[in-house]
From TrEMBL:
<keyword id="KW-0418">Kinase</keyword>
<protein>
    <submittedName>
        <fullName>Protein kinase</fullName>
    </submittedName>
</protein>
<dbReference type="InterPro" id="IPR001611">
    <property type="entry name" value="Leu-rich_rpt"/>
</dbReference>
<dbReference type="InterPro" id="IPR011009">
    <property type="entry name" value="Kinase-like_dom_sf"/>
</dbReference>
<dbReference type="GO" id="GO:0005737">
    <property type="term" value="C:cytoplasm"/>
</dbReference>
<dbReference type="Pfam" id="PF00560">
    <property type="entry name" value="LRR_1"/>
</dbReference>
<dbReference type="InterPro" id="IPR050216">
    <property type="entry name" value="LRR_domain-containing"/>
</dbReference>
<keyword id="KW-0547">Nucleotide-binding</keyword>
<dbReference type="InterPro" id="IPR003591">
    <property type="entry name" value="Leu-rich_rpt_typical-subtyp"/>
</dbReference>
<dbReference type="GO" id="GO:0005524">
    <property type="term" value="F:ATP binding"/>
</dbReference>
<dbReference type="Pfam" id="PF07714">
    <property type="entry name" value="PK_Tyr_Ser-Thr"/>
</dbReference>
<keyword id="KW-0433">Leucine-rich repeat</keyword>
<dbReference type="GO" id="GO:0004672">
    <property type="term" value="F:protein kinase activity"/>
</dbReference>
<feature type="domain" description="Protein kinase">
    <location>
        <begin position="203"/>
        <end position="446"/>
    </location>
</feature>
<keyword id="KW-0808">Transferase</keyword>
<dbReference type="InterPro" id="IPR017441">
    <property type="entry name" value="Protein_kinase_ATP_BS"/>
</dbReference>
<dbReference type="InterPro" id="IPR001245">
    <property type="entry name" value="Ser-Thr/Tyr_kinase_cat_dom"/>
</dbReference>
Length: 446
């Protein structure tokens, strides 16, 4: 974080990144003195309502964040910046986007939690778009021009007013991570669950384990009805729209998911919270589990990142891919599309056993609508293909030379083929990996 005083004193001369959050009501003119070098500008958490025409001087700007400001109109001046790729306007009050205001160079656009009722037709010119986040707006339809965004991979349209999902959406060749819950086109499904209600009074919270967009997770002791005490994890939802959608949709998906050896197990729903907040109680993940990968970076956009020294054995790759595929097959058998099938949402232990979680982007869908059910599953199959590709990319050359690795490679290619309808179901994927797992004495392909 920088200060306005530093900027005005010239101390940021030559900077490539600037971050200011100091109740700004207008963009400081000194920002434009950095035009030759500035690539990343973060003015989130201010009171900006517009951007000046001088903003066009920032010809080298690649990334710009304006979240939590007072904009009501998407600034048209941004459409004139030739290198701008990533733009964030989360939690403003934007209700209008003019034609060609969105730069055609955009790869990653965040407009979560605004007042947008209509997208401009010119969004179809953003053919480099990979990540489009529109949850928590007032959209009633998707413009047909959006079908031209053939590189779109991650698409968040939960918590809108969309009444119809167009056919072209399910034929986009690279779309892999889709969230559509909280729309009239996908009405809430009845979630039959026998999960017990766990009283807040029966929980003794300890340290915080983590905090995500939708809630806070803490370690706790639970004294259950059998009068025995054991450690659990408690997630208390914030009740706010996230980049993925609504917390209540996440809760419904978690409860509907049921038990599976590769899913984080839900024990019950939280009851009698003093602030009337919703929550879930989970089995505490055993020590020794770690995140399989890291969240996407600015550069990777939609793909997870891994430490440079990451290496998987072939046995680990088989175990991880089989566990994740089996868990996802289980979810789709219950009418759940996870929507965020990623390594960073997967935990693994030293044996390669995976635990899959984080239902923030999940969609509970009507299985009787077989067209929708099949389409959602085939989209998610590509996400699994991306995960499998990551695993194979981190095998040693010797491991990749083995026949079993080559069979995994062939499976990955089938999962990621651009013709959505030709991708396999998760049940087939599980069968194939089980077959690979049971293959003994792997031979070299030399």
């Amino acid at each position: 974080m920088h200060t306005l005083e530093q900027l005005q004193a010239g101390e940021l001369a030559g900077a490539t990144r600037v971050k200011l959050s100091c109740n700004l009501t207008e963009v400081p003119s000194e920002i434009f003195d950095l035009a030759e070098t500035l690539e990343i500008l973060d003015l989130s958490g201010n009171h900006l309502t517009s951007l000046p025409d001088a903003f066009t001087r920032l010809q080298n700007l690649r990334i710009a964040f304006f979240s939590d400001n007072d904009f009501t109109v998407f600034p048209e001046v941004l459409g004139k910046l030739p290198r701008l790729e990533m733009i964030g306007f989360k939690a403003c009050q934007i209700g209008h986007i003019a034609e060609d205001a969105i730069p055609h160079t955009t790869r990653w656009l965040i407009l979560t939690n605004n007042q947008i009722a209509e997208l401009p037709a010119s969004i179809g010119k953003c053919t480099r778009m990979q990540k489009l986040m529109l949850a928590g707006n007032k959209l009633k339809a998707l413009p047909p021009e959006l079908a031209s965004c053939q590189n779109l991979e991650l698409f968040r349209i939960s918590a809108n007013q969309i009444t119809h999902l167009p056919d072209w959406l399910f034929s986009l060749p690279r779309l892999s991570w889709l969230a559509i819950s909280g729309n009239p086109c996908n009405p809430p499904a009845s979630t039959a669950t026998d999960l017990p209600e766990i009283s807040w009074q029966d929980l003794v919270l300890e340290e915080q384990l983590g905090e995500g967009a939708s809630g806070i997770i803490s370690r706790a002791h639970w004294q259950n009805r059998a009068n025995s005490t054991h450690q659990v994890a408690v997630k208390v939802f914030k009740g706010e729209v996230t980049s993925d959608g609504l917390p209540e949709d996440e809760m419904q998906a978690c409860m509907r998911a049921g038990a599976h050896p590769n899913l984080v197990q839900v024990l019950g729903k939280l009851g009698q919270h003093p602030a009337q907040k919703q929550g879930l109680v989970f089995e505490l993940i055993p020590a020794g589990y770690r995140n399989l990968g890291g969240s996407p970076s600015f550069e990777s956009c939609t793909r997870d990142v891994y430490a440079e020294d990451t290496v998987f054995t072939l046995e680990e790759a088989i175990s991880i891919s089989l566990g994740v595929a089996s868990a996802t097959a289980h979810l789709h058998a219950r009418g759940i599309s996870h929507g965020d099938l990623y390594a960073h949402n997967t935990l693994v232990d030293e044996t390669g056993h995976p635990l899959f979680g984080d239902f923030g982007a999940a969609t509970v869908y009507d299985q009787a609508n077989t067209t929708l059910a099949t389409a959602l599953e085939r989209l998610e199959v590509r996400a699994f293909g991306c995960l499998l590709e990551d695993l194979l990319d981190h095998l040693t050359p010797e491991a990749m030379a083995q026949e079993r690795a080559q069979r995994l490679l062939q499976l990955k290619q089938v999962c990621m083929q651009p013709e959505v309808q030709n991708r396999p179901a998760f049940s087939f994927i599980v069968e194939q990996i089980e077959s690979i797992s049971k293959q003994v004495m792997p031979s070299s392909l030399n």
